[in-house]
Specification:
- The protein has 292 residues and is an alpha+beta fold.
- The chain folds into two domains: 159 residues, Fructose-1,6-Bisphosphatase, subunit A, domain 1 (Fructose-1,6-Bisphosphatase, Chain A, domain 1, 2-Layer Sandwich), CATH 3.30.540; 120 residues, D-Maltodextrin-Binding Protein, domain 2 (3-Layer(aba) Sandwich).
- Helices cover 29% and strands 23% of the residues.
- The chain starts with a helix and ends with a helix.
- GO terms for molecular function: metal ion binding.
Length: 292
């Protein structure tokens, strides 16, 4: 029998702890790689740690689960992509494992603590599991489809983690790239962080993963990449958050997505926050039109 998503996570977790220790150890000395082609500097950032952790995980998967599909963020730059069964979705229950070796590379390069290692297990229709490790904070979260979300310190075994549920009184909302027009309609209710204009290399600001720490009331994403922000949305939903498209409807099956990403995602900690986010998007029809 093929391994279950839980079995895959339990097998990989001890090795991912090593990857987390590596990322933490070398951060102060990290060397940046030449930027990747990308429309923004967040997505363009690349470091030695991205490439090294991806190679490490590829070796693990090819040795432990050689029949899985695998898509890593740096698939074009590694030596191992050609050895995997495929890099895309297959039929139902033919899992695709995805990896963001350093989610938040620019934060990592600038010495901040809010970077992560994110590994996911995708089915044809939806996520089966997601695991997000925060090396600098010594914590990780994981979620299993239909079973909830959990949190533990890095040395805690999967079965001993504690259930994670939304717990926030925060009034901060984060906007993803190219959503600056939403700042005005949302500012009457929230403190709004616009990643395209508010990022500072001197002062750490929250990013999407702060939804798991209780710092955020919600997020609006023009595109949710499968490897990172869409995975965090899956985890948030497993913990009780409301997650929809920009039209307020449930997110469509993964196999209908293009380019390894969901188009337009709202994440809210309560129905009221969701209504505020939805109303702001609907007040600016151009945003919805661009994404659809």
């Amino acid at each position: 029998m093929p391994p279950t998503p839980r079995q895959i996570l339990e097998t990989l977790l001890p090795h991912l702890r090593v990857a987390a220790a590596y990322a933490r150890q070398i951060q102060s000395r990290i060397v940046a790689q030449p930027d990747k082609a990308s429309p923004n500097f967040f997505a363009a950032a690349l470091s030695d740690a991205d490439l090294s952790i991806q190679t490490f995980v590829e070796v693990l998967l090819l040795g432990l689960f050689p029949k899985v599909r695998f898509y890593g963020e740096e698939y074009e730059k590694t030596y191992n992509t050609k050895y995997f069964k495929a890099i895309d979705l297959g039929e139902q229950d033919d899992y695709l494992i995805t990896l963001d070796p350093i989610d938040g590379t620019q934060f990592y390069l600038d010495g901040f603590s809010n970077y992560q290692i994110i590994l996911n297990i995708l089915n044809r229709d939806d996520y089966e599991a997601a695991l997000a490790i925060s090396p600098a904070l010594d914590i990780y979260h994981y979620a299993l489809r239909g079973q909830g979300c959990w949190r533990g310190s890095l040395d805690t075994p999967l079965p001993d983690c504690q259930p994670w549920k939304i717990q926030t009184t925060g009034k901060t909302v984060i906007l993803g790239w190219e959503l600056s027009s939403l700042v005005s309609p949302l500012s009457q209710h929230y403190s709004v962080i616009d990643l395209s204009t508010d990022y500072s290399r001197q002062t750490q600001i929250p990013t999407f993963n702060a939804i798991l720490s209780g710092e955020l009331a919600g997020c609006v994403l023009k595109a949710g990449q499968w490897i990172d922000s869409a995975a965090l949305a899956f985890m948030a939903q497993a913990g009780g958050c409301i997650v929809t498209g920009l039209d307020g409807q449930p997110l469509p099956p993964l196999h209908t997505n293009q380019n390894y990403r969901r188009s337009g995602v709202l994440v809210a900690v309560s129905p009221q926050v969701h209504q505020h986010l939805l109303a702001a998007v609907q007040s600016l029809p151009k945003i919805s039109a661009e994404i659809s």
